[in-house]
Amino acid sequence: MKSISLLLASITLVFFLACTSNTVAPAETTVTIGFVHLNNNVALELDKIRYTNSLGQDYSIKTVKYFISKVTFHNTNGTDYVSSNIHYVDIRDTETLSQELTENIPYGTYSGISFVFGLVAKDNVTGSLELDLDRLMEWPAPLGGGYHYMKLEGEFVDNNATSFFNFHTGALEGEAYEIHIDIPNLNFELNSNALNSTTLYMEITMEISNWFQNPTNWDFSYWGSGIMGNPEAQATVQKNGQDVFSIAFPSYNN
Amino acid sequence: MKKIAIISFLLIILLNACIDVETPDNTPTLYNLVIPEGFPEMTIPASNPLSIEGVALGKKLYYDNILDKNQARACATCHLQEQSFSSQPDVLPHVNLGWNYNWLWKGDVQGSLEDIMAFEVQHFFDTNLDNLNNHVDYPILFKNAFGVDEITYSEIEKALAQFLRTLNSGNSKFDQVLRKEAEFTNEENLGFELFFTERGDCFHCHATAFFSDNQLHNNALDANPEPGYYQITGDSLDYGKFKSPTLRNIAYTAPYMHNGKYATLKEVVDFYSEGLEYSPTVDPLMKQLSNGGIQLTSEEKTALVAFLKTLSDTEFIQNPEFADK
Question: Which of B2, B69, B94, B123 is deepest in the core (most CB within 10 A)?
Answer without folding.
Answer: B94
